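User: Please predict the structure of the protein below. I'd like the answer in structure-token form so I can feed it into my own downstream comparison script.

Assistant: Understood. Taking the following sequence of 268 residues as input:
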Amino acid sequence: MNHGIISCSVQITRHQILLTACSSFFNQIVSSIKISEISTMTTPQLPTTTPENVQQLLNRAQSLAGYTLGELAARANIAIPRDLKRDKGWVGMLLELYLGASAGSKPEQDFPEIGVELKTIPIDSRGKPLETTFVCVAPLTGNSGVTWESSHVRHKLQRVLWVPVEGERQIPLEQRRVGSPLLWTPNEEENEQLKRDWEELMDMIVLGKVERITARHGEVLQIRPKAANSRALTEATGEHGEPILTLPRGFYLKKNFTAALLARHFLL
């Protein structure tokens, strides 16, 4: 069992500890939980400061494991949307409150003081990601001299706190449980995969081929349109070097990449 990882199947009430088999993903972790580990779990609190270090951030994230989104929203006195169709960032916003994130919508890590990015990831009953993971907006102009080492993608993915959340549609939003946190830094192989895809995609942008990029490009990293509607256009470069207007694009981690990441760390 990985230290610091406790199943999201654990719920603590005033009178008892409930171990519930919410899915096969959580069951494998539940089977090796020690009572001593459970006894160290704390009740979620709304912090007034950003975390001072990574361990404090992990402690805050671990305290959320096993609670439902409804329970956390009620504690924070936040209204729960009917669904996430128009509130896709609601889950992340809720967890940011409990973790003390400071970046907000700024183009930097959620916890810049300690160099950590927060990513919630909806999973199914087998622990498989249900959707791709947004990383950052893709720059369509002004890319002269930009390298992988200086890119926003690499900066965002330097160190990530992953928080799995039950995401199957048949589970009402307020009943979906928060999972155990995972602090991740890309290993050498993962970094090379990301770098290779980033360089391929950025080459297409610089060469004016942004309109030819599809979600099939890239093995683990993709570029997709990111806009609330088709009228939200931004500047880019066309194939003949001319300025064009196109939909904003974003970098996303493909599901095969995040699935392998979760499987390795949670021993699925």
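That's the full token string. The chain has two domains: 10-131+148-184+257-266, 190-251.
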